Structure formats: structure tokens, C-alpha cells
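cron nightly-structures :: item 1 of 1
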Amino acid sequence: MLQLTVSEKGTGSGLLARLQREVRFLRGLGLDAHLQSFESGSRRFYLCCVSPAASGSGKGIEVDVAEVARASIAIAVKETVLEDWEPRLLTRMIARIRPGYRREDKARVHQVARAIAQRVGEDAFSERSRVLQRTLDYLSEADFLQLDGFVRFRLKAYREELMDCVRQAVDDLEVEKEREELIALLKEFIQGRSSEVPVVHILPAGEERFRLVDQGGAPVEAELFNDFQWDLVDADQVDMEELLITALVSIAPRRVVCHRPIETGDIPMVADVFAGKLITCAGCELCRGPAVPGTEPPSP
């Protein structure tokens, strides 16, 4: 008979339900499997006993009892780590490196960090994807697993990987907050200006460049788009959208028309700064390709 014990502090996880599920699975294989639980202080212990079924009562399935039982217990432990422990670990890590964050910012970082961790876990060489194997390796050496100690000492690399996910999420949030603050500042700047240019058209100019013209087709702010500026864009020293938004903010038009193949999704910051003022041309002699359903053509 194989006996394996798993212990956890408190009863807030789904470990017991997962172990019960695995015991039912083992019974379905024709094995004699039982789960007992008992408490001692603040800890709860789960004793799983597995042995071959009595002669004549099995289902004819030949299995390595110890191997299958360890795999079942390891699956329950792995799921508990990733589903129950991981969110708590992320919360602690965020509080440790950004204690001054507001609750909503911590929640945003937590959501992004969890998504990053899950994406990282799709890599077979990630520590997150190795939690199951590390649990199996441990249970092959020991018949007692203390979950909190296991996470702390045997999954150190996994916790370090999670911390990297948190740091990336924090960086993403701070970049996004800077972007939001810049957009708010640019909106305020535009609203405080009066413009003599009612409409500016963004036209494709080949090689991922653009040009700006007024309603009559005359170039607008052409000096901003000299060869030097485009050389910086080509060298990735200046972002194309940064150059575009600099020109549009300086002009502060009351309306901006985006002509195909340039889409508003290609210029998200421009779309945010000029929210409510930016439209996509539905098709004209200046556009390439068919009209875009549901969009507005420029006024004649």
C-alpha cells in the first residue's frame, strides 16, 4: 500500500476537493483508494492510501500503483499551487515592491501579472510549466508534502519567475499611466487653443509615411516632415506616430480624417488625444482599397 500525506495551513484552498477528485479517478482505475483528513492546530492533513484492488474486484487495468497514485496527488498539488497559491503570491510580491500603490493600481498589476504568468507557462521550459514535474520528483523521494514549505523551498525558481512577471506588469502599468497623463495633457492643450484649420486629412505617402493636407488638399505643416525627420523615423529614433501627433497637436484641428490604408488602430495615441474628432474616410479618390463600412467620408 502506498501512503502519501499532504498538509496545508488553513482550509482556504481547493486542495481537499482536488484530492477527492483524484481519489475517485484512482477508484475508477480499479484501485483501492481512500482519503482521510484531520486537523492539528492551524494545519490540515490529508492522508491518501492507495493499493491494488482485492482479487477479482478490479477492472482489469494494469497500472503501476505507486506511479499512478503519485501522479494523481501531484496533479492536485500542482493545480492548487497555480490556481490558489499563485494569486496570493502575486499579491504579496506586488505589496513588497510597490507598497505605495493604490488598491486599483495593485489590482491592475495583479491582473496583468497573472496573464503574463499564464502566457509564460505555455512555454514547456518555464518554471510554471515544471511545477507538476517538480512535485512528482518530490513525491518520489518523500511520502509527506507540506504545501507551504514545498512552495517556499522547492519552488523557488517558480517564485522568482512570478516576480519577473510582477516587475514586467509594474513596468507596463507605469508606462500606461505615463501615456494616460500625456494624453490628458495634450487634450487639455488642444482644448485651450483656437485653430484656423477646421479639418486635417492624414494621407498615406508610401514607405509607411504620411502627409497632412487641409480640406483643399494643400499641405499642412510640411516643414515638420523634412528628410531629416523621416531619416530619424527610418532609423527607429523617432516613432512615426510621435511625429504625427506632434504635427496634429501643433495644428489643433477641429476634425481629423484618416485615409486608408492608415487605420485608427495604427495610431492609437492620436485616436485617444483626438477622441470624438478622428474619423476614418469611407472611401474617396485619396484612399486605397474599398470603403470601410460604417465610417464617415470627408465632407466635400
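cron nightly-structures :: done
Confidence is low (pLDDT under 50) at residues 227-235, 289-298.
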